[in-house]
Structure formats: C-alpha cells, structure tokens
Amino acid sequence: DAGVIQSPRHEVTEMGQEVTLRCKPISGHDYLFWYRQTMMRGLELLIYFNNNVPIDDSGMPEDRFSAKMPNASFSTLKIQPSEPRDSAVYFCASSGGLAGGPIGEQFFGPGTRLTVL
Amino acid sequence: QKEVEQNSGPLSVPEGAIASLNCTYSDRGSQSFFWYRQYSGKSPELIMSIYSNGDKEDGRFTAQLNKASQYVSLLIRDSQPSDSATYLCAARGYSTLTFGKGTMLLVSP
After folding, report:
1. pLDDT tens digit string along A44-66?
2. Which of A38, A50, B86, B88 is deepest in the core (most CB within 10 A)?
3. Taking a C-beta distance cutoff of 8 angstroms, is the pair B100, B36 a contact?
4. Predicted confidence (pLDDT) per residue in B90-100, tens digit
C-alpha cells in the first residue's frame, strides 16, 4: 500500500493567493482527517470526514478555510485568501473501515509545508 | 476544553537507559489513548495504543494507563539513538483525537 498521499509537499505563496492542498487516503479507510501543526499550537484537528461526509469542522479557523471530499479516494483543503499566519505543516490522515483499525489508529501522510509570504 | 498535557522536554537519556514519557489528560470521558512518534521533518506514526488500565508491552515499549489519575505514560527500554524523536500523546474523545504538543526525546550514544 502506498500510504496516505499528499500534494504538494511544499507550497510557497503570497498573501491573498488561493492555496489548495490535496490528499489521497489509504484505500478502504472510511475516516479522513485534516490537521495543522505549528510549534506554538502543536497538532490541531481542522476537520474530519466519515464516508466522504464532513462530520466536524469546528477546528477550521475561519471562513477562509474550506474542505471537500468528493469521493472516497480524494480530499482537498482550500485556503482563500491565504495569510502569513496560515504558514504551517498541514497533514492528512486516514483510519477506520474494514481495511483499517480503530479510529484512533491513524495513518498520516507526509504533510504539506505551507509558507505564506 | 479537552486538553492533553506533556512536558516539552527535551528529555535526554544515555543509550541503553530507560526513557519515561508522561502525559495527563483533562477529559474523563476519554477511553483510549495513543502514542505517536514524530521524527524531525516527518509525519507522526503510531507506535502504541492502550485501552484499559494497566500496562501494555510491545517489544521495547510499554504503555501505562491510570484512568483514575488521568495519566498515561510510555516507557522505552534499552533506548537507542534512533529513538530520538518527539513523542505525541493522544486521547480519543467521541470520535476524534486530541494531541499533546509532544515531548522531545534525545538519546545520546
């Protein structure tokens, strides 16, 4: 199995630009999570999906952030417009379902390091 | 506010020693707990899970849970330089994980 795939691995953009991060979960997993990690705040859950349906987006910092999961093998996290304080590493993780274990046993992608200038 | 607290470290131990990493959590409703290891510049990876009070051993790793004290720990026996990483403690609520900020472990040869 290729594991969780994220793209791009690095993104440098200017304030005000739109940023789209992409994730392909492990096949058979029915939960998908988007996290953001910074030194100050640690690893924070932004939103999670179950069977492609958003369940809890209370961690999304503001309306500039949006996430979609159009099918079981693809999800996007979009920031529009981006701001310097959005600079962080964004991780996608998946778990659960017949192919996975309990929901707490999550498999993380390699992350996208976002820098907003 | 559900919180998971960890000492940020670094915790420095010599090679071959036992490293003890600790974690406390605020949500008494949490039922399962996880330890993730994160190497610098890499993503977190699951190393241990524990669901009931007591000890759970897996190779050189032992997870300990005390729900009455809301305390979780991870012991690493015979520490190796390759164990140098940040260890994240996580508690599961209804369906999501709350992570601590992690403890950095440095194992010196």
Report:
1. 999 999 999 999 999 998 899 99
2. B88
3. no
4. 998 777 889 99
